[in-house]
Amino acid sequence: MLTRRHIRVKVMQCIYALIQSKDDSLEKQEKFLKVSIDNMYTLYLLMLSLLIELHQMASNHVKLSSKKYLADTNIYPDKEKFIKNRLLVQLSRNQRIKTLLANKKIQNWYLNEEYVKIIYKEITSSGFYDTHMSSKTDSYDDDLEFIVTLYKNIIAPNEKIYEYFEDDKLTWIDDFPIVNTYLVKRLKKAKPHSGEDYFLPALLKDQQDMVYAKDLLVKTLLNNDKWEKEIDGKTPNWDKDRIAEIDNILLKMAICELLNFPSIPEKVTLNEYLEIAKEYSTPKSSIFINGILDKLVKEYKTDGKLNKMGRGLL
After folding, report:
1. For a FRET experiment, which of 14, 44, 285, 311 has its CA 20 to 30 Å from that of 169?
2. φ, ψ dihedrals at 116, nearest 5°
């Protein structure tokens, strides 16, 4: 689920948080890194469980509307079509998801039901809902396409949900689009026979990813002065205050990766940090960072400091 780029971003966030808090406790930052990575999976489970909660709310609504004094004015060929949605039923009956939500004590939507109501109201008043409920087509693929459409057009862009996550955990703001994109891709590939574990992918490819994350954080922080000198040597005419904080962090991480992670090709390192700079720093940051790293790579190769091996990992 998490790529190496996501991991680099998490490390960058940890270092930035350390600088802002002026807390030089390496132990705290390692803990923050692990919690931040784990919280990303919690966010994935939250968005998955939101679909389940919406299905439950729809079921409750149908039950209430079946009573004469709460008769539903909307007439569709099958007013229960939404609650019969095969993908939603598949998720709602998934015992592995239920167990994991219970074990992690994830009750956000139960405790904040108003957000589920907001989403449900938007869904049922949308043209997507009306078109689907009016259609006589009935298959797993139709149901899946409908849910993906709702997710992409109503759930993911919802400002109230975004504000809720922003207030709950600050790092979720950066995680939200990543989780949404991954979940949509996962849903699109779901099949009627998909096992329960299909919807619960591993957070990391393997344990080596976590080792990489911790090593990158620790080696960047412990050698901060060394990386600072490397940067100063390539920016003699620059006032330190003129270099954006994020640029400074990304440069140190990139230098650390170039010199301390022989299995990662220098081209991968350069490309990854330039892409991160484009997304998280100033418009000209990637050009600035590329110029410095390019000089350093040439220098390291000349001095025999850049010893790479293997195919590397993204």
Report:
1. 285
2. -65, -40
